[in-house]
Amino acid sequence: MSAAGQRAPARTLYTPEILGAATALASFGWDESLPLKGDARSRRCGSTLSLGLSVDDEGRIDRIGLRAHACAIGQAAAYAFASAAKGRCKGSIAEARTALAAWLAGEGAKPDWPGIEQVEPALGYPARHDAIMLAWDAALVALG
After folding, report:
1. What is the pLDDT of residues 18-43, one digit of tens each?
2. Whole-number Å distance between alpha carbons of 128 and 89
3. In the chain, N or C terminus with fewer CB closer than 10 Å?
């Protein structure tokens, strides 16, 4: 929101970084062979994300594939998730999800997750916040 209380123009929301990350999500294509699967849906905007994972013997993510039907913001956030998820366990994902929710609600610092700064322009757009959370939510479902 601007100082006058009006929403910033859409051109400031869909930055080149967000659009580039949304496009790059294709590098984490859906893989039906991944054994752990989770789905998440935004009740606010209807965006959905399906996520497949495999984990190593220590429960750390070693492969990931996604199928997103989301806005560019949701896709960019999913790209940030997928790019940094390898090697993480369920506890790490849950901790990051909690920090992300607090940040989006204006109640915490930016999470320590590589690439999350790309979606920072969406902080002023609460209708996009659920879409940002999709990958973390789907991963927690997959990791059970």
Report:
1. 999 999 999 999 999 999 999 999 99
2. 26
3. C
Two tokens at 16?
Answer: 């080149």
Per DSSP, the three-state class of 143 is helix
Q: In degrees, to the nearest 5, what angle opens at C-alpha 122 toward C-alphas 19 and 40? A: 80
How many angstroms separate the CA atoms of 25 and 46, rounded? 19
List, in order, residues 6 or more apart from 64 with CB less than 8 Å away.
28, 34, 51, 52, 53, 82, 85, 86
* pLDDT digits 0-9 by tens, 61-116: 999 999 999 999 999 999 999 999 999 999 999 999 999 999 999 999 999 999 99
DSSP readout, 63-113? EEEEEEES-HHHHHHHHHHHHHHTT--HHHHHHHHHHHHHHHTTSSPPPS-
Percent of the chain with pLDDT over 90: 88
Q: What span, in angstroms and rounded, lies between the C-alpha atoms of 88 and 86? A: 6
Distance CA 54, CA 14 (A): 32
What structural domains and CATH numbers belong to the chain? 10-143 (3.90.1010.10)
